[in-house]
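Here is one chain, start to finish.
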Amino acid sequence: MAAFDFGENDLLAAQRIVVVAAIRSGSLAEVRAAWRAYQVLAEASIEALTDEGGAHAHARIGLILAKAAIWQEAGDQVRYWEELMSAQDYAEGMAFDTPGACSVLDQASAMNSAEYLQAAGRYEAAIEAYIGREQLPLTDHDRGLLNYRVAECYQALLPLKPNQPEVADLLNASIQSALLYLEERPEQGWALRLLDEVKLAGR
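Its structure:
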């Protein structure tokens, strides 16, 4: 894969396999470690480029697209679309308007454009409904995934708020809700592993 001056060398290609396997395993610790290793290798690859013509910035957009492809390969469509939107925002912020850059990004962001719009709209509407702004009918699967994502946020927030027990309470409540709504779903394993991590951390 090569886009925006970024291409996966043999080391990155091998680490990509590790990242995909970690995501599919559902272990947040494995996912974070795998992504960190991938990021280190990617940054080294980018820094090895001469920065002529803004090659580093172009390559970083390529890296975002490479990450999007990894999430897609691992089966996480939400993270896939988030990365594509990040690439779009980054390119617009850098005012990249060369024909080559535009053609690559347009191709990436236009893939399954109808699916993209549907997924993005549903995700945003679901969040609004979940916090009570709308009454969109959600499936238990929707609720389970939302609770799981919220729990991930609380887990990341907890070390920054060690003296606020309500954050730990919200984390545990979100995990329990995710477990309930994801019953007999493959993603329930994600919530169980997150619960194990929280227990091991004494939260």
